[in-house]
Amino acid sequence: MASRLGTDKDIDRVAFGAHQLNLTRLRYFVAVAQELHFGRAASRLGISQPPLSLHIKALEEQVGAKLLTRTNRHVALTVSGRILLDQATQLLDHAERVSHVMQGVGAGEIGELFVGCVPSALYDVLPKAATHFRKAYPNIHLVIEEAHTADVMKAVADGRHDVGLVWKNLAEPPLESEVVLEEQFVAVVPADHPLAAREVLSLEELAPEPLILPPRKISPYHYDHILASFVNKGLRPRIEYEVPTILSQIGFAASGCGIAISPGFARTFATERVVVADIEEKMAPVLLSLVWNKARMSPPVSQFRDVVGEVFRDARDRVGEREPKLP
């Protein structure tokens, strides 16, 4: 081959050879090309001059072109050398960026986190948790998807979601869970209802009223606990409506359809058309849990779990301050 390249065919051959080039060898070449002096380049690279010369010779053989002209006093780039210097500089810069990104991914500082969430947790605590998380990990993109407990847990098990916030106390393998917030059930009463003047209501008073509960199909945990609380007192509740979300339960109550029995989150969404009353009997608490797949644990999942735990501890403190004041 000629020692000097200038045709498109020659350039293509250099580019083709670059697919197999060693990054270390390219760094050596760039140092020589920038210094135009083997001694200074060797000193900059922290190696001796003879191995550097051998690497440049091997690189020239690999690309099939002369990259440098060299005399006792002068080093210069050939046309091929100038082309390779430009391409190698870009390639090395890109390789450095890739390395930085992958280190960030491995450390959990860069990436994407898919979070499944029950509707009622979307309006208060989760946004606060997301804000704290984004401040700590600005290069992790959060993707939030709203769904009911069963759907969120299935998505986490299948790997479509990384973590989930659900109304459940325990998760079954391969999922693991941690309770992050406890809420008591409350009664959401239409503002013009005779019971609206009461701050605390008993199950005996609620049983004959048209009740609004979450559907058992999507919230078996809630439905069963509410029903058991009545049955254990020998009461038969009058369940008129099964409505899926806290917001929709409040809407039904506000329209005079009945009294909703909802998690304490209902206080956050209550309007002037409803009154939220405590329930006298101590019912089983409503448990909001964070779930994840143990087999797919990653640094972002672990970090999100820590941040959510911290934020929800603050929320638990607020809940404790508004416990029912019973006689």
TrEMBL record:
GO terms for cellular component: protein-DNA complex. PROSITE patterns: HTH_LYSR. It comes from the Bacteria. Keywords: DNA-binding, Transcription, Transcription regulation. Transmembrane segments: none annotated. The keyword Transcription regulation applies. It holds the Pfam family HTH_1. Residues 21-78 form the HTH lysR-type domain. The keyword Transcription regulation applies. One of its GO terms (molecular function) is DNA binding. Belongs to the LysR transcriptional regulatory family. This is LysR substrate-binding domain-containing protein. The lineage of its organism: Bacteria, Pseudomonadati, Pseudomonadota, Alphaproteobacteria, Hyphomicrobiales.
